[in-house]
Design a protein that fits this description.
The protein is mainly alpha-helical. It has 17 helices and four strands.
């Protein structure tokens, strides 16, 4: 399946040009739906922008980046009368500008796609084609963003980044909960159909592994982010989230819950527990220095373990939202608003979509009778994903705090999102029992 999806994306990439060689490449690829291939193409664009942003953080590029316009023309002052030192902050400021242009592109696409109901809409060509022009537009936007004087740009854009990052964390929570439910449902179904002990052992081993990782994370959080005297807020965050995941795990195996969701259980709870502990870790990494043993060893414009794990989760979430179709559990997890529906509509006889005017493109239009996903909401999600990765790459830094990772606002945003995660998961468990007359299938 992954190879086919990769070839679908390759087909659309090849169709960015108009040569005979490109046409031959397109015709050699297997057919796939335009709802899938288009989402993958935007995902590739977003991932490429992330890679470019990562490159700007490479230590070897600092001297060259100091020559960029926003450093030479900058007033150098942000709130708090802190002078922006391009020798230290140029990588972070470059990431801000790359993500600023990318975010604006997705916001523009979201506005253009408002009200689209099917691929028969004239705007479908803009959504599903013109990839070369889109890439040029993003590249031009990035170049233009580098001419924005610093002034208060970083501190202002950081506020947008924190807000957007918070909303993407919520979306990421929904996707992870959907993944947990889908994973458990598939393995439980395999076990019920085959009665094989292998599936039962795999379920048990996966659950125990996830809970062990979560418990290990809790111990490490107490070691690195608390002290025997003081750090009461950090202790509260860790202890409270531990209590929450224990309560959520207990709810998942209640008889009243099992009656309506016989396949819910501790596997989903273990996956959610790991993510909650990650969010707790991420929040505490922005806590004050006196309770944060990692700040003193932190190097500016560099990745730490928390950022790397955050990027991995982000990439997996973006890819999952692009290739995953809504399942029976999606209505409960609310991911049906994010994932594409498994469309069967052939549109105009199942003809190939001609996004770039190439008649040989073997991308089947499955949205002729109705879109498989909200095109506008898809671009909004990717705009929020851009803001989230911007904050992750820059360690959620505060421009007015000497580039320190200490950022109380970011800490509260992440810890609040961890509580929302548990709340959303518990809702997916109790909703069918609370509203027995509502169809969640």
């Amino acid at each position: 399946m992954g190879a086919v999806l990769g070839l679908c994306s390759a087909a659309q990439m090849a169709c960015c040009c108009t040569s005979a060689a490109c046409s031959l490449c397109c015709s050699a690829c297997p057919s796939c739906t335009n709802s899938t291939s288009t989402r993958l193409m935007y995902t590739i664009m977003l991932l490429l922008m992330m890679i470019v942003a990562c490159v700007t953080l490479a230590p070897g590029l600092h001297e060259q980046l100091k020559k960029v316009p926003f450093c030479e023309n900058s007033t150098g002052i942000v709130p708090g009368n802190f002078k922006v030192d391009c020798d230290q902050a140029v990588g972070y400021l470059a990431v801000y500008r790359i993500c600023f242009a990318t975010c604006l592109f997705f916001v523009l696409m979201a506005l253009i796609m408002l009200g689209v109901k099917s691929s028969k809409d004239p705007r479908a060509g803009i959504q599903n084609g013109f990839w070369g022009i889109k890439y040029l537009l993003v590249i031009g936007g990035v170049i233009g963003a580098f001419f924005i004087p610093e002034g208060q740009f970083a501190s202002t854009w950081m506020v947008f980044g924190m807000i957007g990052g918070f909303f993407f964390i919520i979306i990421q929570l929904i996707l992870i909960i959907d993944f947990a439910h889908s994973w458990a449902e598939r393995w439980v179904s395999n076990y019920e159909e085959t009665q094989s002990r292998t599936w039962y052992a795999a379920l048990l081993l996966s659950m125990l592994t996830c809970f062990t990782l979560a418990l290990t994370g809790i111990v490490l959080l107490y070691v690195y982010y608390t002290k025997s005297s003081g750090c009461d807020l950090s202790k509260f965050f860790i202890s409270f989230n531990l209590i929450l995941v224990v309560i959520a795990s207990a709810i998942s195996i209640l008889p009243s819950v099992q009656e309506y969701q016989p396949r819910s259980g501790l596997l989903q709870s273990s996956v959610v527990s790991i993510y909650v502990m990650y969010l707790t870790w991420s929040a505490l990494s922005n806590s004050p220095a006196e309770c944060n043993a990692t700040i003193s060893d932190d190097k500016q414009n560099s990745f730490d373990n928390q950022s790397i794990i955050g990027l991995v989760i982000w990439v997996c979430s973006v890819l999952y939202s692009s290739i995953r179709t809504a399942s029976s559990s999606s209505k409960i997890t609310m991911s049906e608003h994010i994932l594409a529906k498994d469309g069967n509509a052939e549109g105009d006889g199942g003809e190939a979509a001609r996004g770039a005017g190439d008649a040989e493109a073997k991308v089947v239009d499955n949205e002729g009778d109705g879109v498989a996903y909200s095109w506008t909401f898809f671009h909004v999600v990717f705009a929020l994903a851009t803001l989230y990765v911007m904050m992750t790459l820059t360690n959620w830094f505060n421009p007015s705090s000497q580039l320190s990772k200490e950022n109380v606002a970011s800490m509260w945003i992440k810890i609040t999102s961890s509580w929302l995660c548990v709340g959303l998961y518990v809702w997916t468990l109790v909703a069918p029992a609370v509203f027995p007359d509502r169809d969640f299938s």
